[in-house]
Amino acid sequence: MKALTLLLCLLGLALVSSCRKSDSSAATVGAPGEKNLTVGVSFETLQTEYWVAGLDAIRAELKARHYSMLEAVADGDANRQLEQVKNFITRKVDGIILVPKDAQTCLPMIKAANAAGIPIALFNRPAEPSSAKSVAVVADNFALTRETASYLIGLAKKSGEQHEAMILLGDLGDINAVGRRDGFEAAVKGNESIIKVVAQVPTEWSQEKAQAGVVNALQSHPNIRFIFTSSDFLLPSIVSALKSAGRYKPAGDPDHVLLGGFDGDATAYGLLKDGYLDATGVQDVYFEAKQAVQAIVDLRAGKDVPPLIQDPGFVIHRDNLTARSSQMWGAQVSKR
Amino acid sequence: MESGSARPTTTRLLPGAAEFFGRLAQSDYLVLGLCVVYLASFAPFTPGLLSLENLGNLLQSLLPLSIAALGLTVVLIIGGIDLSITAVIGLTSVIGAKMMSSSHGWLADSAFAVPAALLAMLACGAAVGALNGIGVTVLKLPPFILTLTTMMAVSGFAVWLTKSRNIGGLPEGFSSLWASLWFATLLTAVIAALLHLLLARSVFGRWCQAIGFNSRAARVSGVPIQGMTFAVYVICGVCAAVAGILFTAQAETGSPVLGQRVLLDVLGATVLGGTSLFGGRGKIHWTLCGVLFLRLVDNSLNLLSLSIFTITMVKGGVILAAALLDAARSRLTISRK
Amino acid sequence: MTFALEVRGIEKSFSGVPVLRGVTFALEAGKTLGLVGENGAGKSTLMNILGGGVQADAGQMLLGGVSHAPRTPADAARAGVAFVHQELNLFPNLTIAENIFLTAFPTRSGAFIRYSAIYQRTAELLREVGLDTPPDTPVENLSTGQRQLVEIAKALSRDARILIFDEPTSSLSARECEQLFKVMGQLRRRGLTMIYISHQLGDVLRLCDSVVVLRDGIVAGSGPTREFTADRLVVLMVGRALTQLYPSRRGSARSEIVFEARGLGEPRVIHDISFALRRGEILGVAGLMGAGRSELARILFGLDPHSRGAVFLEGKALHRASPTERISRGLAFLTEDRRHEGLCLDASIADNLMLVALRDFARTPLKLLNRAMSRATLQKIRERIRLNQNARDEQPVRTLSGGNQQKVVLGKWLLVQPRVLILDEPTRGVDVGAKFEIYSQILELADGGAGILIISSEIEELLGLCDRVLVMNRGEIRDELSRPEFDRERILQSALPAELFS
């Protein structure tokens, strides 16, 4: 009997609090120019340097504006992230910045924020199109990759010979990965006399798969002289595969393999300096952080904010390295 | 409460603190008491902990876990274990979403999409449970190894079905009903009440207990062990499937990794409540209290903006403390011989 | 005069229930003391206190004049108290020598066992206990009686000052008992002090120098053995005179056959077993350990398979029916292994008593229990089996004495009113008072028309209760005696291996 009473109490609580919830959805939007906002930041993971740099950039941006920040990491668990967002709402934050696990599981989180009248910005990963309203700040994967690849093709052209090429694909369930593949293919189009893509290595964003794939490709196509990776965090796998094949030579060496990437992490910075990497497309983390925070401020002020803010990024290579390394997050990470 | 209570509660009182703590440690509501103490001591400096809204959140996050833990409780009572719960949650999520998703579902936009998907999800849980049941009874495999294998196979299958891509676009009717707090609470309450009746008041419960305490003696006493064990694993599978339905509705997504990280929460909460890993002892309301306490700890630390690493460590500590308490409890029972 | 052991005013209670109330006695060095009493009289608790398993609430013990208050069993062992237990504490997978030296291996450079040394010492010890077996024999190859001798050798290896035998004969054959008694006599002549606990009063009177009788936690009588007779011991133990050991039979066997085995066989277990049990008949099965009696019972109840023959209950073949099905058709089985197969020790008395009959108290469709009805039934059955009044329904069965535990096992079968009851060693480890009550229940059941099959190693018990006795030897029925033909010698001859007489 006691157990039944317990259950009834829980049920009562459920009813009461679900009624209360609909009340709180009528919360008003803050006035423009307000001070001392509190922003809740939830990251899906902090397992790569990129996300750590992103969190640092957001923290710095909020600090510069004298806003306070609540942070949470979901460790890859969508249910946990939903709970964290709800906790932010409970604590009546003024805005939420989210790195979602994927495009679908973030929808209930956005809806919850919408219902509570709290502006929400997605950092670096967009949500699937739906009725839920959010602002996503993402790198223009397609344009930036096309630009990077074109720069590399330009280098290849100088030799005048046709280069056999390999591309490392990301997880094609991730639209960032798809954008990068499409950008690469767009750059190759029309330059088939210079670049002949002989290997496409699916990595599903896994270092182990990348390493095995690159080793296999180098064995079956020993003449590969051009490698592009969809993310810089796979560079160590490529380097080790090239080393074991005896093909790891810096620029200037006649056997140098042209190497390009995307992200601009600390490894990429080091390889660029040493001449092994020729170019990488840098996501401008600082720009993205600034835009995400600004979007929250603008939404609170009732301004119109486009649902997708694109970070154009920039291509970094040996010639502009010194000039632009201050904007390259990987360079900042490696200097620390 | 019932004469079937396995924990002896002395009617004669020995004076002294040891006796008091002995009785406290053996009380049915120890964990619930701990919840209240915890809440009272954390509320003053945890912003929003006692707000109705947060309590609602707490309840919502507690429901799917509770249902999974209730199923596990029954398995633990007969002295078994089921590690495949999380895999069942993932598989049901994927199967259901594959059927009813409006973007690429097999039954997209059909009027029967939601009921058919729900049935398929429950059937899925029952099937995995049946598989476990057959493995334990007919093939006589140790449940730990067997369900570990099922876990790997089933979650592998779920990932393969989706090619590790999530399925969105679930019908609005599905998510809004099954993720709504009152409905999910009602559902959990009904399941808990039903299992409570089964365990505490029916032949089924006594048989479960007998199997857990001593399966050889139960066999000699005519308890249909094979059938019971099979039924218990199916119940656990179905409970996991229901938990999977709630998780899927809350996330509005079919994903093979949806419940991947809840196994320790489910197992920890069940043991925390007082259900023995060695079989025989366990009650529905113990488990509910255990889930409540574990979620309360998690929720409050979350509100304090502690990192996930801290939260995980604290939760681990709480479960360890519960295990120690359980061991102390058994010692107390034995020393009263 | 020096005392090896003095016990002064020992008191102990559990959860407020007094178990020992001022027990006082003394034991001269080099003598053997017989400790008798009903189950629950406090013998086990007293020995537990002596052995460091539990601590006394009050009182004092002196071991060789020195205060003895062990906190742990290891303390007691160091002080020179050694046990030979009813349930043997040997590791079957290790050799005799390894078992004996398990906690005190002589080693070379602290890590390597000096096998030659322990084999030599073990051989000496085995000679002392009259066991003619190589020291490197694995214990699993030994018979129960031989294992007991190994236990004694183990105690001797530690220079025990007091050796305590707790029901040592309960699982021994007659010949093994004789061997044990011979060894005990030698040890006594060597001047070892011993305590002998047994329900076999004849053995106690024959082996011991003095006797202490415990009843309800007090010393009901003590003194030199010559002052006691078996009858007087029983009176002291039970607190009243038991006029007879076996209750008198009112009914008798009827003509119709209720249970029948035809040509039952299973390779290497039993061979061509046929018998017919009539309603109201009590049929005994005699034989030595390992003659296939328990195996036969398990096959009859459907716990083990058989490859040949068939079993018929009320004329219908049981084929491969499960125990569950056999129970619902009126068969019941009281196992010899109370702890492992008879009871859920950690479950309550109520749950254990109700386990078989549960289905009769369930209402459809959820099979919910009718609690009022089951409580009333529980009360009735408790009175019928005369369970200890102080025990509460929700108390774990583990906390009961052996005799009361056995009553619970019997009670749970009585509740379903079986048409055929198979009992395997129903009174093993049970005291005289409880024995009488168990016998009464068996007779009452037979008088009500049930068929009873009793397996027992106590020939007296079979002669006292049965209408007919079958004698098993090496998996076969060798002999059959009806009441007028009952003859102890004839049963023994059929039970013993044939080569002894050829």
Structure, described:
The complex is a heterotrimer of chains A (336), B (337) and C (502). Chain A is α/β, with parallel strands linked by helices and 336 residues long. In chain A, 46% of the residues lie in helices and 19% in strands. Chain A contains 12 helices and 12 strands. In chain A, β3, α4 and β4 form a beta-alpha-beta unit. Chain B is an all-alpha fold and 337 residues long. Chain B is globular, with a radius of gyration of 21 Å. By secondary structure, chain C is α/β, with parallel strands linked by helices. Helix content of chain C is 33%, strand content 26%. Chain C is built from 17 helices and 24 strands. The longest helix of chain C is centred in the middle third of the chain and has 16 residues. The termini of chain C are far apart. The relative contact order of chain C is 0.11. The model of chain C has no long low-confidence stretch (mean pLDDT 87). Classes of the chains: A alpha/beta (336), B mainly alpha (337), C alpha/beta (502). Chains in contact: A-B, B-C. At the A-B interface, α1, β2 and α3 of A face α3, α8, α11 and α13 of B.
Q: What would a concise description of this structure say?
A:
The complex is a heterotrimer of chains A (336), B (337) and C (502). With 336 residues, chain A is α/β, with parallel strands linked by helices.
How far do the termini of chain C sit from each other?
Answer: 53 Å
Instruction: Sketch the major β-sheet of chain C.
Output: 6 strands, mixed
> Strand order, biggest sheet of chain C?
6-9-10-3-11-12
Main sheet: strands, sense, barrel of chain B: none
Strand content of chain C: 25-35%
- Estimate percent helicity of chain C: 25-40%
Give me the number of helical elements of chain C.
Answer: 17
Helix/sheet category of chain C = alpha/beta
Helical fraction of chain B equals over 70%
Poorly predicted runs of chain B:
1-14
SSE layout:
The complex is a heterotrimer of chains A (336), B (337) and C (502).
Chain A: H1 2-24, E1 38-43, H2 49-64, E2 68-73, H3 78-90, E3 95-99, H4 107-116, E4 120-123, E5 135-139, H5 141-159, E6 163-169, H6 175-188, E7 195-202, H7 207-220, E8 224-229, H8 235-244, E9 258-263, H9 266-274, E10 279-282, H10 285-300, E11 308-311, E12 314-317, H11 321-324, H12 329-335
Parallel strand pairs in A: 1-2, 1-3, 3-4, 4-5, 5-11, 6-7, 6-8, 8-9, 9-10
Antiparallel strand pairs in A: 10-12
Chain B: H1 17-25, H2 30-42, H3 52-77, H4 85-100, H5 113-137, H6 143-162, H7 172-178, H8 181-201, H9 203-213, H10 215-220, H11 225-251, H12 263-273, H13 284-303, H14 308-335
Helix pairs in contact in B: 2-13, 3-8, 3-11, 3-12, 3-13, 4-5, 4-6, 4-11, 5-6, 5-11, 7-11, 8-9, 9-11, 12-13, 12-14, 13-14
Chain C: E1 3-14, E2 17-28, E3 32-37, H1 43-50, E4 58-63, E5 66-67, H2 73-79, E6 81-84, H3 96-100, E7 107-108, E8 112-113, H4 115-128, H5 144-157, E9 162-166, H6 174-189, E10 193-197, H7 201-207, E11 210-215, E12 218-224, H8 230-238, E13 257-266, E14 270-278, E15 282-286, H9 293-300, E16 308-313, E17 316-317, H10 323-328, E18 331-334, H11 338-342, H12 349-354, E19 362-363, E20 368-369, H13 371-385, H14 402-414, E21 420-424, H15 432-447, E22 451-455, H16 459-465, E23 468-473, E24 476-482, H17 488-495
